[in-house]
Design goal:
This protein has three helices and eight strands. With 193 residues, the chain is an alpha+beta fold. An eight-stranded antiparallel β-barrel has the order 1-2-3-4-5-6-7-8. The longest helix is centred in the first third of the chain and has 23 residues.
């Protein structure tokens, strides 16, 4: 009777303590802080890459990325979830009062935890859809040169690991296909003789 009741009360108290500590423990502490960010601003190459500073912090069970120092005034806020412990996926939106731009993003967290790289999708001024690279480097404990090297490393990783679809080859003239096949360069549609 009373012994079971006391054990139950102790178990509930213990569970409540575990839950309370988990709630108070900061989430995503390894990502929180100031980061350098670099992304393509627009389609045309004259704009090029835009360097900025962002702050990453936990927010309502998600990771929040907020631009702080952006020379174009292209400020935004992004919220994402960490998936499989290494992919940050979510949505971003402009914080300009009259702007309506925003879109999805996906970043991969480097195993060392000081670099993220991936892609975002955004409309440009002509309503074309831009798929662009986005690289972030953690500034805590790093020199400016180290941060620049990390940003370059992220860009290199994206170049080396991204596969882009090749445009389909232009169809050859029908006579060229038939000639190639008859000279042993390919199988005919009806089969080989």
């Amino acid at each position: 009777g009373s012994r079971v009741s006391e054990n139950l009360k102790a178990a509930v108290r213990g569970s409540c303590g575990v839950i309370s500590r988990a709630i108070r423990r900061p989430q995503f502490w390894q990502l929180a802080g100031e980061w350098a960010s670099c992304y393509r601003f627009a389609y045309d190459d004259e704009e090029g890459m835009l360097d900025e500073e962002v702050v990453i912090r936990p927010a309502c069970g998600k990771v929040c990325i907020e631009s702080k120092s952006n020379k174009k005034g292209d400020n935004y806020i992004a919220y994402g979830k960490l998936v499989m412990g290494k992919h940050l996926t979510g949505e971003w939106e402009s914080v300009r009062p009259t702007a309506s731009s925003g879109g999805p993003f996906m970043l991969t967290l480097h195993p060392l935890g000081n670099l993220m790289y991936g892609y975002f999708i955004a409309p440009d001024d002509d309503f074309r859809i831009l798929h662009a690279t986005w690289v972030l480097a953690k500034k805590a404990g790093a020199t400016d040169d180290e941060v620049k090297r990390l940003l370059l490393k992220g860009e290199r990783i994206l170049r080396e690991t991204s596969k882009f679809a090749q445009p389909p080859a232009a169809p050859a003239a029908p006579g060229v296909i038939a000639e190639t096949r008859s000279n042993g360069g390919g199988d005919s549609a009806a089969g080989s003789n």
